[in-house]
Amino acid sequence: MAGPAVIQVHPLSEVRARLSGILARFRREGSAAEPVAFGTHRKPEAVLLPYEVYERYEAIARQRERLDWALSAAGSVRAELPGAFSPEHDRQVAAYVDGQIDAIELYQRTVARYRGE
Prior knowledge:
Layout: E1 9-11, H1 12-29, E2 36-39, E3 46-48, H2 51-80, H3 87-97, H4 103-115
Parallel strand pairs: 1-2
Antiparallel strand pairs: 2-3
Helix pairs in contact: 2-3, 3-4
């Protein structure tokens, strides 16, 4: 696994002076624009990044939370219901993680499937 990327940390005064140029670059380059890290004493404290990149990060974070919840719930279901999870269950977990169904729907479908409903 690769280590963390080496980033240049800019002083706040420099970022403040260059902010309009940074925004222009973000508009021009979109999500391909390099983020700008800044802080004091070359210690990164904050990052400016294109909003598109932030939106993707947030979407991934929400998916990760949903996946963590689904894995935790799967452990509970396994303790209560016999048998292995089916490919259909895996598809429904994927639908939950992608936001196509909610947690209650996933739970109800899982219980119904194992009860033979």
